[in-house]
Design brief:
Helices cover 66% and strands 0% of the residues. By secondary structure, the chain is mostly helical. The chain has 2 domains: 37 residues; 29 residues, no CATH class. It is elongated, with a radius of gyration of 18 Å. It starts with a helix and ends in a 6-residue tail after the last helix.
Length: 82
């Protein structure tokens, strides 16, 4: 943890204070830690890796109409029993 904190340009106990003391990181500090670890923020926050393909899908969905977003959701959602 110490090495990650220092590589992110933060104090040596920074990551420890987040993980063990419940401190809330700023977006900028969390981005710096993510860069050092080579992971995306969604992966850290939600356990979901953000591949280039996933990032493209999110970008496309964010610009799509509500009807198109519902269509994609319905297409990808598990089948529902009647």
């Amino acid at each position: 943890m110490r090495e990650v904190s220092l590589a992110a340009g933060r104090a040596h106990g920074y990551v420890n204070s987040i993980l063990n003391e419940g401190k809330d990181p700023t977006i900028a500090n969390l981005e710096a830690v993510c860069r050092v670890l080579g992971v995306s923020m969604p992966e850290i926050l939600y356990g979901i890796p953000l591949t280039p393909e996933t990032q493209e899908l999110i970008s496309l969905l964010s610009r799509a109409s509500a009807a198109k977003q519902r269509g994609v959701r319905d297409l990808l959602a598990p089948d529902k029993e009647p």
